[in-house]
Design brief:
Number of helices: 4
Strand content: 25-35%
Shape: elongated
Order of helices and strands: EEEHHEEEHH
Number of domains: 2
Structural class: alpha+beta
Helix content: 25-40%
């Protein structure tokens, strides 16, 4: 498991007129933020300790039982990347798997798409063809270094 920074969700702000620990938590349409001024809490270290305590209390309320490791939980596959492969997605309106890549034509970058019909190839074969096409086009369009 990844190691958490002890100050996760806390920003230390030290600028003219503002010296504080700032707690910000936002998750699943719930949020919390609060400032812990160094002067009010008797110094930087005490303000940071108060901020950490409050962060952990509010974090448990917002994130639930997975606090503080929720931000490292496995991510859901984006609906824009339903295949699990970058640049390959399912188009509901076309009932096809779509491979998307960038081409360089005379110094101009253009997005290109290739559609693989599920009606014509079947779901599994259309998806596989889209992945293969995407990989081939990306390889073909690599810029030599």
């Amino acid at each position: 498991m990844k190691r958490l920074d002890p100050l996760h969700h806390i920003s230390i702000i030290e600028s003219r007129g503002t010296n504080c620990a700032w707690v910000r938590i936002k998750y699943d349409n719930k949020s919390f933020q609060e400032s812990f001024p160094f002067k009010k809490y008797g110094g930087k270290d005490k303000a940071i300790k108060a901020a950490m305590k409050k962060r952990d209390e509010e974090g448990r309320k917002i994130y639930g039982e997975n606090w503080p490791f929720t931000k490292f939980s496995p991510r859901k596959v984006s609906p824009l990347n339903s295949s699990g492969e970058i640049g390959v997605s399912y188009s509901e309106s076309d009932h096809a798997w779509v491979a998307t890549w960038q081409e360089n034509i005379d110094g101009n970058r253009r997005q290109r798409n290739a559609y693989f019909s599920i009606n014509k190839y079947g779901d599994k074969k259309a998806r596989t063809m889209a992945i293969q096409r995407r990989r081939a086009e990306v390889e073909k369009n690599k810029i030599a270094s």
